[in-house]
Write a structure and sequence with these properties.
This protein has about 260 residues and is α/β, with parallel strands linked by helices. The protein has nine helices and ten strands.
């Protein structure tokens, strides 16, 4: 990973845009859609970011140097080597945003991926996210323990789960889920035996488990590329430290010989 993807709240914040024409217009629409106050005043104070959409290379370089000297993060359209940050292709299911970036390598590739995802991601994803936010206190009351709460939500959102975002569910699906008094989310230990050190060879189930696990006990031979598919906050341990008495959440035991 050579860039850290972040979502920046620009609502009401100033963004400097240098340039005119089609490139500049496209950037203006994007930033204004995010709620930014876009200005062409290069000397504007309290700017959060700067965007340069100039055709001539030397003009773009000079503008980037001036703005960077002020401590601003700068995006220079079509010149990834000059960029402090890049803008991704976006699938918008407000409040859910899916961003696809290539580190400036190919905007066309990012666009192609976005177009495919647009056909896969249902419009109902945004309302589901809003419903989960509105029910946050009820969910915490139902599962006071953070690990149990996370496992319950993971199970509900899994394929075939009660809140499967890709399934046609009734509008009161979340209420039904929360009202199911028989729900239990037990601690689990699942063995994962890798057939390869290549992340592309992970099964769908293995990839999903890596994204859900609370703790991972892995052989030293398991490649870092595999472990990086896990949640960033998942605890990692060497397999030699495995102790079943300490299992409280979804725990993976990963082996690769």
């Amino acid at each position: 990973m050579n860039q850290l993807p972040v979502f920046v709240n620009l609502r009401g914040r100033k963004v400097i845009l240098i340039g005119t024409g089609e490139m500049a217009d496209a950037k203006r629409r994007l930033y204004e859609r995010a709620g930014a106050d876009v200005t062409d005043d290069e000397a504007a104070k309290d700017a959060a970011l700067a965007v340069i959409a100039l055709e001539e290379d030397m003009q773009a370089l000079a503008a980037a140097q001036r703005l960077k000297a002020r401590g601003l993060l700068v995006n220079v359209v079509d010149r990834p080597a000059l960029c402090d940050y890049t803008t991704p292709a976006i699938v918008d299911r407000d409040p859910v945003l899916i961003a696809i970036g290539t580190g400036g390598a190919s905007a066309g590739l990012a666009k192609a991926l976005r177009q495919r995802l647009e056909r896969l991601i249902p419009e109902s994803l945004g309302p589901l996210a809003d419903s989960l936010l509105a029910a946050r206190d009820r969910i915490k009351e139902r599962w006071p323990d953070g690990a149990s709460r996370r496992r319950a939500i993971d199970a509900a959102l899994d394929p075939g789960g009660e809140l499967d975002p890709f399934a046609d569910k009734p509008v009161d699906a979340l209420d039904i889920w929360l009202g199911d008094a028989g729900q239990t989310v037990a601690a689990q230990v699942i063995d994962v035996n890798l057939v390869s050190g290549d992340p592309d060879d992970l099964t769908i189930r293995q990839a999903r488990l890596l994204g859900q696990a609370d703790a991972i006990f892995a052989q030293s031979s398991v490649p870092e590329e595999i472990l990086n598919r896990a949640r960033a906050d998942a605890q990692r341990f060497d397999l030699s430290m495995f102790d079943t008495t300490k299992v409280t959440g979804l725990t993976l035991v990963i082996r690769y010989n």
